[in-house]
Amino acid sequence: MRLVILGGGESGVGTAILGKKKGYEVFVSDFGKIKGNYKEVLIINGIAWEEEKHTEDLILNADVVMKSPGIPDKSPIVKKLIEKGIPIVSEIEFAAPFTDSTIIGITGSNGKTTTTMLTHHLLKSAGLNVGLGGNIGKSFAWQIADNKYDSYVLELSSFQLDGIVNFKPHIAIITNISPDHLDRYDYKYENYIDAKFRITMNQTEDDYLIYDSDDEAINEWFKTHTTKAKLIPFSLTKIFSEGAYIKNNKMEIKINQEEFTMDTEHIALEGKHNMKNAMAATSVAKLMQIRKATIRESLSNFQGVEHRLEKVLKIQNVQYINDSKATNVNATFFALDSMNTPTVWIVGGVDKGNDYNELMSLVREKVKAIICLGVDNKKIIDAFGNVVDMMIEVTNMNDAVKMAQRLSEKGDTVLLSPACASFDLFENYEDRGIQFKQAVKSL
């Protein structure tokens, strides 16, 4: 069996190692450059590879192709594979049959990284032998080839779910759905929603789907679709006989005739959206039979995720917060919503078709000044030019942070929450967040 892998990054190399171990003839092809450390791994394992090209003769003879999630279906080589009827799968689809571990899959437009990390933290703190993978950390396929985890917590993007056929998590979570990546879904929101719900398409009556019952897109989907999985909703406003909710400042969870309660003030994560992430993760912990005392302790000591509402420093009584991971409007909505002091907001980057109107009431209420950090800031200026007193454009992070310091007073917050992708001025959102933190530390 010939396995061809498009993309020589983390998921590609991980799949190559697993494929080799399972007796496939493996070939890795990357249209860009393959990083040195990955090249080394391929060479040591005797895996054939090429970079900066796709040689059709070596690709179109595949029995199966694993395509890295970043490669769009519109790319010429993918079109040719589709024409020839060669099956194209994602890493999780390829890898899952080689493990009988319990899989917890987490998707959503926002909150999925925090929920994934928190779920992993809850299970690991309870002493479970649990791996973390998917969209973060080490490749799922690589972990299956190397380690023997009894369960995996996987963060899954819609691109990864596009490439599944039989993959099914025992427990699935959909944190929420809001318009994102529409450029990859023919600008049709319903296509993107359907991609997210692929996480439950193969689930049976023995599996679970945990979801945000306050989410409009999720509720709309349920009007015309069904899943066999047992449903466990969570909500900030409703109360369930089976599910998770907030009542009298307590998080309450009822699953399989068992109850768990905890005062919300003892939960380390702050903000309404994080209460939802905590409800989702705790629902998994309850399904995995984790002891209540362990869950309480883990929820109170969780450190959060880098670049997601990360408190950097307080300088002259101004709090600097790094929310570089907010690459869409919905994520920035959560960030602004959780501000309770006057805010200097650093925003901008590559716009993915953003509608800034959703932020209007929050900006009026909370934002005193806006610093635009992008190559093209026209949409932001058009949206908020008349709403805030101060609006400034900069083209690098140092200027942004120095400007923010000038515009802020004691008791204010400086918030980097770009609502955009970072590729105009930075390598990725991590690079943007690291530069922000460095600039703040050198004030």
UniProtKB/TrEMBL annotation:
UniProt xrefs under Pfam families: Mur_ligase_C, Mur_ligase_M, MurD_N
Keywords noted in UniProt: ATP-binding, Cell cycle, Cell division, Cell shape, Cell wall biogenesis/degradation, Cytoplasm, Ligase, Nucleotide-binding, Peptidoglycan synthesis
Signal peptide: none
Positions of the Mur ligase C-terminal domain: 307-420
Domain Mur ligase central: residue ranges: 106-284
Domain of life of the source: Bacteria
GO terms (BP aspect): cell division; cell wall organization; peptidoglycan biosynthetic process; regulation of cell shape
The reaction(s) this protein catalyses: UDP-N-acetyl-alpha-D-muramoyl-L-alanine + D-glutamate + ATP = UDP-N-acetyl-alpha-D-muramoyl-L-alanyl-D-glutamate + ADP + phosphate + H(+)
Pathway: Cell wall biogenesis; peptidoglycan biosynthesis
SUPFAM superfamilies: MurCD N-terminal domain, MurD-like peptide ligases, catalytic domain, MurD-like peptide ligases, peptide-binding domain
Gene Ontology cellular-component terms listed: cytoplasm
InterPro entries in UniProt: Mur-like_cat_sf (IPR036565), Mur_ligase_C (IPR004101), Mur_ligase_C_dom_sf (IPR036615), Mur_ligase_cen (IPR013221), MurD (IPR005762)
Residues where ATP binds: G108, S109, N110, G111, K112, T113, T114
EC annotation from Swiss-Prot or TrEMBL: 6.3.2.9
Subcellular location(s) of the protein: Cytoplasm
GO molecular function terms listed in the Swiss-Prot or TrEMBL record: ATP binding; UDP-N-acetylmuramoylalanine-D-glutamate ligase activity
Function: Cell wall formation. Catalyzes the addition of glutamate to the nucleotide precursor UDP-N-acetylmuramoyl-L-alanine (UMA).
Protein family: Belongs to the MurCDEF family.
This protein's name: UDP-N-acetylmuramoylalanine--D-glutamate ligase
Record lineage: Bacteria, Pseudomonadati, Bacteroidota, Flavobacteriia, Flavobacteriales
